[in-house]
Amino acid sequence: MQRIGVFVCWCGSNIAATVDVQRVAEELKKEPGVVFSADYQYMCSESGQNLIKDAIKEHALTGVVICSCSPRMHENTFRKAAASVGLNPYMVEIANIREQCSWIHKDKATGTEKAIILGRAAIAKVHLNAPLIAGESPVTKRALVIGGGIAGIQTALDIAEAGFEVDIVEKSPTIGGKMAQLDKTFPTLDCSACILTPKMVEAAQQEKIKIYSYSEIDEVKGFVGNFSVKIRRKARYVKEDICTGCGLCTEKCPQKKVPNEFNMGMDNRRAIYIPFAQAVPKVATIDPNYCTMLKTGKCGVCSKICGVKAIDYTQQDEIVEAKYGAIVVATGFNPISPAKFDEFAYSQSPDVVTSLEYERLMNAAGPTNGTLLRPSDGKHPHTIVFVQCVGSRCDGAEKGKPYCSKVCCMYTAKHAMLTREKYPDTDVYVFYIDVRTPGKNFDEFYRRAVEEYNVHYIKGMVGKVVPENGKLKVQAADLLSNEQLHIDADMVVLATAVEPDPSARSLATKLTASMDTNDFFTEAHPKLRPVESPTAGVFLSGMCQGPKDIPETVSQASAAAAKVIGLLVKDKLVGNPCVAHSDELLCNGCSSCEKVCPYGAITYSDKEFRMPDRTTALRRVAAVNPAVCQGCGACTVACPSGAMDLFGFSNNQIMAEVDAICK
Amino acid sequence: MQVENKEFKPLIVAFCCNWCSYAGADLAGTNRLNYPADVKIIRVPCSCRVNPMFILRAFQRGADGVIICGCHPGDCHYTTGNYYARRRMTALFSMLDYLGIEKGRTRVEWVSAAEGQRFAETMNSFVSTIISLGENKRLEDLRCKTK
Amino acid sequence: MENKANLKEQILTASGVNPLKCMRCGKCSATCPSYDEMEYHPHQFVYMVEKGNIEPLLQSESLYTCLTCFACVERCPRNVQPAKLVEAVRLAVIREQGANHLKPQDIPALLDPDLPQQAIVSAFRKYAK
Question: What ipTM was predicted for this assembly?
């Protein structure tokens, strides 16, 4: 018989307001095996923990039940407290009487009654608990960063700085991401490329960083400290180690009509291309969708012109398999297409552009070499209308994204300001719902756009845009003056919502990392663990976790790096002892468990057994590798003979809980 | 919106996976979303840990309804556990009628860690289904009854 | 006061609109083709109903200058559906007056097969004053 102590927490008034904690403690004292019972204001506080520790020592407790908040909150706290006085930490069970009782019930009698039942279930379970000892597993001292934008680059640089090997996997031919496409950055207006490209070069030159550009993740196996990842290096039909990046091929290629994705399709590139001048690695890539040689077998201009013979039309995708201790997801974002909002006429007129397209039109390396010209006729626009919140803050997936995209207010202010600065004869209107400028020097920046640069900020929304005689007829509401405006604009710029990169969803499945309904990766805790995914060993960096600007992205990137370093410096990780185990005497060797195990943790081998008639027989039985088992319990249900069971959540323990609840 | 019922207090056992649904239940609590106290949650590592035996035991001991909550398909922390749970429960539920348990008394629902609202709504709707079905008398083993 | 609250409740029930969903972007008024004909504009309808300030709306000609074209419903990012609210206020006027000058038996003669059902219903209410 266990000697059980019950500790009921008030959690200030959080629990005590709707649960009569004293009565819970008294009632649970009557349960069999309970030798001690107490209630206290804050069990998680130091004095609360001391109360538990003293009771364990004084009453020689063998099991502890704590009626408090969710085990997801303080299970570890209480297990550590128990361990510090010599009680096996897995002899502690939590009855969740806050999140699942006091906070959802208003009636004190109901709450108290439920709390007692939950406490009884926990006591019933503790009776069947057995001390567990966690296994240890080694840590591979190398990190993988998925995505080579500013988030991925910063994370990789910080990890490499601490002395660990890092691989960056980037799906496009160059690292740099969206930041490489930007012109200036708010609120300082420093040139984006000027601050990004040195970091890209640093990443390329840092000995500890290996860049897999034009590569994707095929498969992820393993667990924290021991991931095994298959990286698909897509065929770029150019030998990366030989190509000097001279760019001659990109000038001579006869296929000139390929939309240039770096300039948002507003100009063309060749079928063999280097995305932009400062690309890292600066290596040409052949686009198989457009290359005449790859499609028809007739051409070969680039291979003839290449001085170092780097072109290889026979190249195949290559799979690299590598081991990592930690994985950082930095897959970034894309602006949504405004095509579905037909009131803005994005598909009807080339002069209606998204903000990222506008960014390229302002950029010295863009399709117009930095002169602001209308895409339709190449003339200077004189009236520009900016529309905010296009596809953001919408109700339901049909309308758009429910969240605020966070960066649009500031980059629109930047665009408006830069336009007025370069072309003071331009009239600039910004239609806003709210101007959201929480950030250092952000509101000052926005006020400067209004006060110094005379940008017309109008509270209201644009209702429709009609292309007519080379102009864009903009109909909008000015809510403050309560009138409808009709503006003849030359250009309309849509601040479209951001959304996670489409590759993120399948990556999340491979990583078994969870996502929210908008396909942003969820963090382990929204406040206290913002850079970790709930899946151990997977960390989050940048926009893949939620909309954020460059300073925030860099902060999160460094934070993720710090978490990775903290993991990689460890020599061994203490595993989860709540793993499956097989009773060899019951196992009938059917392989059912082996088939359902998602981790391949179960192996079969022949073993000699003494039979009742004193002969020996060879029987095929299952064995679980505790280092690989993650403790899901799929095998325990699949096992027809009941040989397989799970430590910490055994069949008997769950049955005891069911019985206690159904009493 | 809490389901109000004065006469019949059903006994409902909910098996919630540790990673999604239990966290979703916690979130429902954190957001102070009400659902009836008749629901008692048992934490399991994954929905695939739920042995059909547990469900039968619950009914035998007088439970009026059993609900199994797991991660959304494709989101399982253990990759495929919820698919196993879905298949097992489909098989089990198809036989429950034969045992004398109406279809509505069992349910499998997917609730993610971010869906506190959905958890509360699911529990409210399940409880009202059970209330409309009334007490589970047909399978209850009277020998298990202590009261 | 009670009557006022009842009226708001009646309008919200009839329209199925929740004005609290409005984020005050004004896209309804921006998109409205008969904006200049209206004394109270679509966004004001939403705001005034939310605040329970319905009396001026009942008196206003704006009720009948709304074309019920549903552009505001289509384009509202928050699914507030201002046109349905306008429709509900019209209905409130009709209920208050208790009279119906457009006879149902007259309708078949006025029918155009291309006319959407919603427009027929709204016309019925509009000219039933």
Answer: 0.92
